[in-house]
Design goal:
The protein is α+β, with helices and mostly antiparallel strands. The chain has a single domain, classed as tt1808, chain A, CATH 3.90.1570.10. About 25% of the residues lie in helices and about 30% in strands. It is built from four helices and ten strands, in the order αββαβββαβββββα. The strands form three sheets. The chain has a six-stranded mixed beta sheet. It has a two-stranded antiparallel ribbon with strand order 1-2. A two-stranded antiparallel ribbon has the order 9-10. Strand 5, helix 3 and strand 6 form a beta-alpha-beta unit. The model has no long low-confidence stretch (mean pLDDT about 90).
């Protein structure tokens, strides 16, 4: 089988040429164009709950919320995390696509994509140096917290569930409300 590798720039040229649409649910990962799992109702609701919880950070201009938009990790990898909490910029990233050093936190919501998020995307985030990644595991009612990237893994990993809460930049999220 012959595979053709694409850079992120190639990917964007395909969108500009109309080969791919901006509305296509695809993302370039390690040179391949990948179609993620479909998004279900619980997944959508959880992303909305997270946006609601973190909105005060944006209102106070402490951070920007990026929902299912590209995050450039390398020349051939640009996933679209469910939510990225980006460092605030006055231009709202009008001049560049956010890169790995821009979000102090990336969140993936897994309704049917847990293996993909943990085995494919998490190592890419670690390798790029994304400081913290949460994977909201809806099926098992838990949030997997990953911190301190090293190589293709995170040195710290926690599993939190109902009755516990997450705190980030002064935002406290009780997990029974999220899960």
């Amino acid at each position: 089988m012959t595979r053709h590798r694409f850079s992120v720039e190639d990917f964007h040229r395909m969108v500009e040429a109309g080969i791919l649409s901006e509305d296509d649910r695809v993302e370039p990962l390690e040179g391949e164009v990948v179609e993620p799992s479909p998004v279900g109702k619980r997944h959508m609701a959880t992303v909305k709950k997270l946006m609601d919880a973190f909105f005060p950070l944006q209102a106070r201009r402490q951070a920007l919320l990026q929902v299912q938009d590209p995050l450039r990790l390398s020349p051939d990898t640009e996933p679209q995390p469910d939510l990225a909490i980006l460092r605030f910029r006055e231009d709202f990233y009008a001049e560049k696509i956010p890169e790995a050093e821009d979000p102090p936190l990336v969140i993936e919501v897994a309704e049917s994509s847990l293996d993909y998020d943990l085995k494919v995307k998490l190592p890419l985030y670690a390798r790029a140096g994304v400081l913290e990644v949460w994977v909201v595991d809806l099926e098992n009612r838990r949030v997997l917290v990953h911190r301190n990237p090293e190589g293709r893994a995170y040195r710290e990993a926690l599993a939190l569930g109902p009755g516990e809460s997450l705190d980030f930049l002064g935002v406290r999220i009780p997990l029974e409300e999220l899960l």
